[in-house]
């Protein structure tokens, strides 16, 4: 990956256009400077190699861009607060642990759900409910989210635009 990204810095505009067509299947937008084309190509190469933004982060960025676009088009400039997804505990490979009633419970986060006690569940809240016998917010039960205060969730990042 490092070599591919370094190579982008030294290629001319025509080579950038060819690389763009290979990656996106169309010509680059007219007027896009070569340096910006190289950045977009670099991002795309990394997204292919390492994975792109998750759905929640992409939506948050779209909301920020829309708010910015409205203020740039003569609309009233305004501050927009967009919640940033807190993905701790939702990344495959992570192990979550919680002691309940003197028993240590361990949950493995998988691509397709959560493994606990030899079974796979699609919801962390379902696992918490099975452990406690009552409905729980799964991320809160496993300590991934703090208790709400005055209707707002603590510990969840926010971005101001």
Which helices and strands occur, and which strands form pairs?
Blueprint: H1 2-9, H2 13-24, H3 34-50, H4 55-72, E1 81-83, E2 95-100, E3 103-110, E4 113-116, E5 119-121, H5 124-132, H6 138-141, E6 148-149, E7 152-153, E8 158-160
Antiparallel strand pairs: 1-8, 2-3, 3-4, 4-5, 6-7
Helix pairs in contact: 1-3, 2-3
Brief descriptors of the model:
alpha+beta, 42% helix, 19% strand, elongated
Plain-language structure description:
There is one protein chain. By secondary structure, the chain is an alpha+beta fold. 42% of the residues lie in helices and 19% in strands. It has six helices and eight strands; from the N terminus they run ααααβββββααβββ. The protein has a four-stranded antiparallel beta sheet, covered by helices on one side. It is elongated.
Give a short summary of the structure.
With 161 residues, the protein is of the alpha+beta class. Helix content is 42%, strand content 19%.
Please tell me how large the radius of gyration is. 22 Å
**Separate helix tally:** 6
SS class: alpha+beta
Q: What is the average of the pLDDT values?
A: 81
With strands numbered from the N-terminus, the spatial order across the biggest sheet is 2-3-4-5
Query: Helix amount, in percent?
Result: 40-55%
Report strand %.
15-25%
Number of strands: 8
- The first-to-last residue Cα distance is 32 Å
User: How would you characterize the largest beta sheet?
Assistant: 4 strands, antiparallel
Low-pLDDT stretches are: 150-156
Q: Give, in order, the helices and strands.
A: HHHHEEEEEHHEEE
General shape: elongated
């Amino acid at each position: 990956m490092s070599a591919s990204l370094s190579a982008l810095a030294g290629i001319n505009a025509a080579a950038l256009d060819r690389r763009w067509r290979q990656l996106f299947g169309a010509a680059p937008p007219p007027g896009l400077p070569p340096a910006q084309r190289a950045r977009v190509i670099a991002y795309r190469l990394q997204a292919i190699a390492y994975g792109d933004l998750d759905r929640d982060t992409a939506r948050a960025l779209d909301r920020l861009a829309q708010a910015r676009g409205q203020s740039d088009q003569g609309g009233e400039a305004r501050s927009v607060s967009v919640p940033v997804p807190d993905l701790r505990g939702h990344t495959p490979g992570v192990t979550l642990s919680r002691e309940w009633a003197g028993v240590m419970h361990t949950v493995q986060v998988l691509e397709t759900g959560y493994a606990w006690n030899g079974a796979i569940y699609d919801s962390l809240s379902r696992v918490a409910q099975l452990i406690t016998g009552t409905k729980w917010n799964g991320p809160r039960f496993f300590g991934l989210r703090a208790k709400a205060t005055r209707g707002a969730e603590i510990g969840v990042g926010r971005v101001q635009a």
